[in-house]
Design a protein that fits this description.
Layout lengths: L3 E7 L2 E6 L10 H16 L5 E5 L11 H4 L4 H7 L2 H8 L5 E5 L2 E3 L1 H7 L3 E5 L3 E3 L13 H9 L1 H10 L3 E2 H7 L4 E3 L4 H13 L3 H15 L3 H14 L4 H11 L10
Parallel strand pairs: 2-3, 3-4, 4-6, 5-7, 6-9
Antiparallel strand pairs: 1-2, 7-8
Bound molecules: hexanoyl-coenzyme A.
C-alpha cells in the first residue's frame, strides 16, 4: 500500500494524507519521495488551487525514520541528500495548509512548518526532540522555528526536546488556528475552499512576497511586493474583482 494518499475531494483542492500509521507516519525515504512527487505534480496542475497536508485523525508525523538512520554514517547521510525530497515542498508555489492532529515531532514538525497555514487539533503536540536521540533538526527546524516563534521559545523547544501543546503553539505563533480534534481536517478544507475560490495568481504572489521577503532587507522586500502588486493589474481577476465591487455584485473569478 502506498505510504501517502492523494485525494481530490473537491474542485480546486487536493489533500495529501500521510499513511504509515504503524510507524506513526515516520518520514521514510519512500514517504518523502512520494511527497516530493505529489508536490511536483500538484505545482504543475492548473486545476489545483490549494493543498491540504495531513496525517489523518490521530497523528501528523513522528519525524524522520529513526530506524532507517540509526546506523548511517555521515557520508551515507550525505549521499541520501534528504534536501532533494524537501525541495518541491519548499518551493511549492500554491497555498498549503497543514491539518495537524496528534504528534508533529522532529521532521514532522518541520514538515508542518513548510505549510503556509497550520490548523491544529486541540490535542496536537509539536516538538523538535532530535536532541534526545543525539542529533539536531535537519529539515529547517533551527531556521524556520525561530523565524516563526522567536529565539527564546525556539531555543527552549530545540534544546530541551520537550513538546508544546497546540494552545502553546498557537500562543507563540507556530499555529494559525486551534480547533476541536474532530474538526481539524474539515476546518482546513473550509479554508482551502475559500482560498480556492479566490484569484490564484494573487495567492501565488502573496505567498512569494511573504516567503522571499522574510529573508530580504525591508527595502528589497518592499520592492518585491510593489512589483508583484503592479503585475496583478495584468490579470483578468483583478479587473473582475474591482468591477464587481464597483457594480455591487459577486465577482466571478476565472483564475486568469
Ligand atoms: C521510526 C518510529 C518513529 C520514528 C515511531 N516509530 N516514531 N519509527 N522513526 N520517528 C515506530 C515505533 O518504533 C513503533 O514501532 C511504532 O512506530 C509505534 O511507536 P510507539 O512509540 O509505540 O507509539 P506511541 O506510544 O503512540 O508514541 C508515539 C510517539 C513516539 C510519541 C510519536 O513514537 C516517538 O516519540 N517517536 C519518535 C519521535 C522522534 O524522536 N522524532 C524525531 C526523529 S529525528 P514498533 O516496530 O515498535 O511497533 C528527526 C530528524 C529530522 O525527525 C531530520 C530531517 C528530516
Amino acid at each position: 500500500m502506498s505510504e501517502t494518499l492523494l485525494e481530490r475531494p473537491e474542485d480546486g483542492i487536493a489533500v495529501i494524507r500521510l499513511n504509515r500509521p504503524e510507524a506513526r507516519n515516520a518520514l521514510s525515504a519512500a514517504v518523502r519521495e512520494e511527497l516530493a512527487q505529489h508536490f511536483t505534480a500538484l505545482a504543475a496542475d492548473e486545476t489545483v488551487r490549494c493543498v491540504v497536508l495531513t496525517g489523518g485523525d490521530k497523528i501528523f508525523a513522528a519525524g524522520a525514520d529513526i530506524k532507517a538512520m540509526a546506523e548511517a554514517s555521515p557520508s551515507e547521510m550525505m549521499r541520501r541528500a534528504g534536501e532533494r525530497s524537501w525541495k518541491p515542498l519548499k518551493e511549492f508555489p500554491k497555498p498549503l495548509i497543514a491539518a495537524v492532529n496528534g504528534w508533529a515531532l522532529g521532521g514532522g514538525c518541520e514538515l508542518a512548518m513548510h505549510a503556509d497555514i497550520i490548523v491544529a487539533g486541540e490535542g496536537a503536540k509539536f516538538g523538535q526532540p532530535e536532541i534526545r536521540v543525539g542529533i539536531m533538526p535537519g529539515a529547517g527546524g533551527t531556521q524556520r522555528l525561530p523565524r516563526a516563534v522567536g529565539k527564546f521559545k525556539a531555543m527552549k523547544i530545540l534544546l530541551t526536546g520537550e513538546p508544546v501543546t497546540a494552545a502553546e503553539a498557537e500562543a507563540m505563533g507556530l499555529v494559525s488556528e486551534v480547533v476541536e480534534d474532530a474538526r481539524t481536517i474539515e476546518r482546513a478544507l473550509e479554508m482551502a475552499r475559500s482560498i480556492a475560490a479566490l484569484p490564484p495568481v494573487a495567492a501565488r504572489k502573496i505567498k512569494e512576497a511573504v516567503l522571499a521577503g522574510a529573508d530580504a532587507p525591508l527595502d528589497a522586500g518592499l520592492l518585491l511586493e510593489r512589483q508583484a502588486f503592479q503585475l496583478l493589474f495584468d490579470t483578468a481577476d483583478q479587473k473582475e474583482g474591482m468591477a464587481a465591487f464597483v457594480e455591487k455584485r459577486k465577482p466571478a473569478f476565472r483564475g486568469e
